[in-house]
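#struct-help
A.M.: can someone run this one for me? Single chain, 83 residues.
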Amino acid sequence: MSLATLDPSEARIADGSFTIDEFCNAERMSRGMLYRAWREGWGPEFYLVGTHRRITQRARLEWQRQREAAANGEIASTKRLRR
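D.P.: on it. Structure tokens below:
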């Protein structure tokens, strides 16, 4: 089955990458927060298709792991401060 015959909602699954809007919807975050993450250096990796940014599923999972690790580090340091 070619991508041309797929429903647009199914194309992301076959393609394995997200547009900015798809990524933001999946992560329940605003576009502004995603652009802030990139500006501050903690956003997911992406690649360009022409002028459009795409985020792979692999990059999304890696970004989630990094965010979880950062959150766990913040929680641990907060617990140390309370003692």
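A.M.: thanks! The chain has a mean pLDDT of 83.
D.P.: also worth noting: The first helix runs from residue 8 to 15.
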